[in-house]
């Protein structure tokens, strides 16, 4: 059942396309005019005299239209009206005429109808691919079958060879006004396909911009938006969303959209490849071109406002296209040569495809090439943006890892200096009191402890076996220092490979030091024992440091005004927090008051 709606859609699409192919030819009847070209203005009566003299010729080899010339077209409809049995009136479609006059007979006089797609005129419009038309009664035709049309080409200079106009009957116009030609159908499908791609990418870039606050995403979104505005010319159904009903405004919008496409593309590439950082000299050139394009937008806007048919404005647009195409190819070659990094390949591929499509459109006058190039280019840059996000994320992780390792090293290096000073003081005391054997024994263990710490100074993590070995040396030093005032025991689970797991170095030492200093040494009885247990808990190692000292409450009461809190405990918590996903201290370290003494439970993440 899920396939049924999709099948219906494709059947409808196929029928629509077939209708476009089969019915379009009967919708409009092509008529081939004759033409007379003048470099100055003449009246309709003069034009008719020239026609009677046989000076009007076929358009077969007329060639490219020239600016400054007046083209008079004589359109004889007698054969077309007869073959298609048109009775009362016709619909005339002056395709390719921007500004001119169509002469008919009205009230027994030759009357000009004004053609001016940029302003007030007698043309009417539909949502067809060639939307301009005019309805003419048969009795308004000159000599019963002829029309005279005069136009001069101010902006566009199309190829007038084999120039045609078209007519249709009112019935055909009404019946087939919703149909389009096969070529136009393909173009509109392509335009709406690009609309879908552009809409998805614009939303994607907008989300990225608000999340990452990087201007490259908003620039690319605007690049897509103005592409969409420019391509909307293909379909009135799409163009109506951008002011198509006001053609002067729509012409201005689509004109500056061409410049804005290049502007935002340049800004996007500038930030995408980070020119200010990697290519500062080239970046200054890019910024200069962006300023030039912004100035061109202002100039073109002023020219269109005063005269939308301004030939200088049309030439400016062509110069801009040639310049940007040249810069695109030169820039691609330069980036290929000097830019380091894989991101440049996305820019090179996207730019070459987009520029090639634009040039094909410019020379072949078919917007399909540019839309196709834009769709491929958009796909390439979507992949490029995804790749850059991946690279940025990877670089961020590496930077965080380096900072993490640096921070761990700094925290690990902050061994309580009092331990070193006290150890040296103990050695000094033993030597001064001539206790040579204990002094040598103490010095040997102290040097072993320092040597092991220094040997592992470049390693943030060590195996649990080494950590326990280092911890035992430390406990032996403390035991010697306090004349064997306490005993200790380290317990590991049997039949476990826990000893090979890596843990942060000296992660247990601050808890052991705290238990000795505040729990055991303050106890008056001789039974002073420290027990250290390790358990394998899958993702982490659970360590218990248990003493049978005086307990936390009694230790708190014994603290004097000269009490200095242990920095080691706080630093160890920081180290554990950096190593693990647990966010609170209670998740990492748990203190438990026992009947005799205290038990501290520490969760140590496995590496």
UniProtKB/TrEMBL annotation:
Residues 505-606 form the Histidine kinase/HSP90-like ATPase domain. Residues 189-387 form the 7TM-DISM receptor extracellular domain. One of its GO terms (molecular function) is phosphorelay sensor kinase activity. InterPro entries: 7TMR_DISM_rcpt_extracell_dom1, Bact_2-comp_sensor_kinase, HATPase_C_sf, HATPase_dom, Sig_transdc_His_kin_internal. This is 7TM diverse intracellular signalling. The chain crosses the membrane at residues 189-210, 217-234, 249-273, 285-306, 318-336, 343-363. It holds the Pfam family 7TMR-DISM_7TM. It comes from Algoriphagus halophilus. The keyword Membrane applies. Keywords: Membrane, Transmembrane, Transmembrane helix. GO terms for cellular component: membrane. Coiled coil: none annotated.
């Amino acid at each position: 059942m899920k396939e049924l709606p999709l099948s219906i859609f494709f059947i409808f699409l196929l029928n629509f396309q077939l209708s476009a192919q089969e019915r379009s030819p009967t919708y409009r009847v092509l008529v081939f005019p004759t033409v007379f070209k003048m470099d100055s203005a003449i009246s309709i009566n003069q034009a008719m005299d020239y026609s009677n003299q046989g000076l009007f010729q076929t358009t077969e080899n007329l060639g490219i239209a020239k600016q400054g010339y007046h083209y008079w077209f004589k359109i004889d409809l007698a054969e077309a009206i007869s073959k298609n049995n048109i009775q009362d009136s016709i619909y005339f479609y002056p395709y390719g005429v921007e500004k001119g006059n169509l002469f008919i007979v009205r009230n027994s006089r030759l009357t000009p109808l004004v053609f001016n797609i940029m302003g007030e005129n007698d043309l009417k419009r539909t949502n067809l691919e060639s939307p301009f038309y005019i309805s003419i009664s048969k009795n308004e035709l000159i000599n019963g079958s002829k029309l005279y049309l005069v136009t001069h080409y101010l902006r566009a200079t199309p190829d007038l060879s084999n120039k045609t106009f078209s007519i249709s009957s009112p019935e055909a116009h009404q019946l087939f006004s919703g149909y389009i030609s096969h070529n136009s159908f393909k173009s509109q499908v392509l335009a709406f396909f690009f609309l879908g791609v552009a809409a998805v990418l614009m939303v994607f870039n907008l989300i990225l911009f608000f999340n990452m606050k990087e201007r490259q995403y908003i620039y690319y979104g605007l690049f897509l938006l103005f592409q969409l505005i420019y391509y909307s010319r293909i379909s009135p159904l799409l163009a109506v969303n951008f002011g198509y009903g006001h053609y002067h405004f729509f012409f201005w919008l689509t004109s500056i959209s061409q410049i804005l496409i290049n502007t935002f593309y340049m800004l996007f590439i500038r930030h995408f490849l980070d020119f200010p950082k990697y290519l500062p000299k080239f970046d200054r050139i890019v910024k200069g071109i962006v300023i030039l394009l912004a100035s061109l937008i202002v100039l073109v806007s002023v020219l269109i406002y005063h005269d939308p048919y301004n030939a200088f404005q049309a030439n400016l647009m062509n110069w801009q296209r040639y310049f940007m195409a040249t810069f695109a190819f030169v820039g691609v070659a330069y980036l290929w040569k000097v830019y380091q990094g894989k991101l440049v390949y996305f820019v090179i591929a996207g730019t070459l495809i987009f520029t090639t499509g634009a040039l094909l459109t410019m020379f072949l006058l078919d917007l399909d090439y540019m839309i196709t190039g834009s769709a491929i280019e958009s796909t390439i840059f979507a992949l490029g943006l995804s790749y850059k996000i991946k690279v940025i994320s990877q670089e961020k992780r590496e930077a965080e890892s380096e900072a993490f390792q640096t921070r761990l090293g700094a925290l690990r290096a902050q061994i309580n200096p009092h331990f070193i000073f006290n150890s040296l003081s103990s050695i000094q005391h033993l030597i001064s009191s001539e206790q040579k054997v204990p002094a040598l024994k103490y010095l040997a263990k102290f040097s072993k402890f320092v040597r092991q710490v220094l040997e592992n100074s470049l390693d943030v993590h060590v195996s649990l076996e080494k950590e326990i070995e280092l911890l035992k040396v430390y406990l032996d030093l403390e035991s010697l220092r306090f004349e064997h005032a306490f005993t200790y025991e380290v317990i590991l689970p049997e039949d476990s490979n826990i000893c090979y797991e890596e843990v942060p170095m000296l992660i247990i030492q601050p808890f052991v030091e705290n238990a000795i200093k505040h729990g055991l040494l303050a106890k008056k009885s001789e039974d002073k024992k420290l027990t250290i247990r390790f358990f394998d808990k899958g993702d982490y190692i659970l360590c218990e440091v248990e003493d049978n000292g005086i307990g936390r409450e009694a230790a708190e009461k014994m603290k004097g005004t000269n009490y200095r809190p242990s920095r080691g405990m706080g630093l160890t918590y920081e180290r554990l927090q950096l190593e693990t996903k647990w966010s609170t201290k209670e998740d990492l370290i748990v203190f438990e008051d026992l009947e005799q003494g205290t038990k501290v439970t520490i969760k140590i993440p496995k590496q």
